Amino acid sequence: MELVSLVRLEGVSKHVLLPDDSRLDILRGIDFAVAAGDHVAIVGRSGSGKSTLLNLLGMLDAPSEGAVWFRGEPVRRMRRGRLDRLRGRNVGFVFQQFNLLAGRTALENVEMPLGYAWGRAFWRRRRTATEMLERVGLGHRIESTPEQMSGGEQQRVAIARALVRRPALILADEPTGALDVETGATVMELLDEIASEADAALVTITHDLHVAARARRHYRLDAGVLTPFDLGAAAPSGASDPAAPELAASVAESESGAPAESGAQTESDRGTPAESGAPAEGERDAPAEAAEARNPSEAQGAASVAVTTREDDAERAAVAS
Fold it and tell me: What is the tens place of the pLDDT at every residue in 303-319?
């Protein structure tokens, strides 16, 4: 008996018409499938279409050509109301800029998705949200607002919010781009651990090869074309890893243009106001390529790679001396 993929893309392309009536191709002929319990990393330079692909996987957008299937059923045949309910129950999103509600406590932020639940899940929403915050190590911060938390703590709240309804599919868009390297590694370890416990599929969009190496399958998105890449069983060691020269080359352009400081926050920043940086609602729905060109997550994700590369160079220099 053939196993049914959780989400599957068949011959998917995405394009938009520009003001001069020319056509901009964002994604081209993509075939891609994710099964329950899978962990996939997709790496690509800025403007390659990564966020657009994530929106298609999360059923937030529709392809110009091809089909998206969820649990063996074509998404295009679903009515909007049913599609919204399906996405709310089965898909969890983790963003680079956290997108927490300012002025609301960690508990209120995590509890919010359960406000759309039914029956027992709705009436137990406060207890469920508290348990999830305790699971990510923030049981002592449930009454803190985003402005009172460090970047790492905010991202853990965002992870708790994404997972509180036990989704079957977790989509992480540059989840460590606004964090320093050490905190980012801790956040990814937590995300991977919780996804494994729930047998959920995890798809991570990233510039950072350290983050990509944690996945079991690896893809590169270049000029709208998605191709598999075998990173092997190599441990996260960045662009210096001999197993990853071609993959590293796919983000070389982003590395060379990255600023010296990434603006990352560490756990020691506790008490320092941090930007939640939630994008305007319309920005995610704008023509995908134009939105990605403006998306600050791409630049900050590139900065994360640049910082990692400099640290690797420093370590090699110390060994050489």
Answer: 443 434 444 444 444 44
| DSSP per residue, 135-164 | HTT-GGGTT--GGGS-HHHHHHHHHHHHHT
- Phi/psi of residue 152, nearest 5 degrees: -65, -40
User: Alpha helices, DSSP H only, in 91-147?
Assistant: 106-111, 119-123, 125-135
Rounded CA separation 275/85 (Å): 30
Could you list the beta-strand ranges (E) of 179-318.
Answer: 201-206, 217-222, 225-229
Site of tokens 């299937």: 69
Greatest CA span in the chain, whole angstroms?
A: 65
Class of domain 37-60+79-320: alpha beta
Query: What residues have CB less than 8 Å from 252, skipping those under 6 apart?
Result: 45
pLDDT recorded at residue 115: 86
Token look-up 């893809």 returns 219
53 has a pLDDT exceeding 80: yes
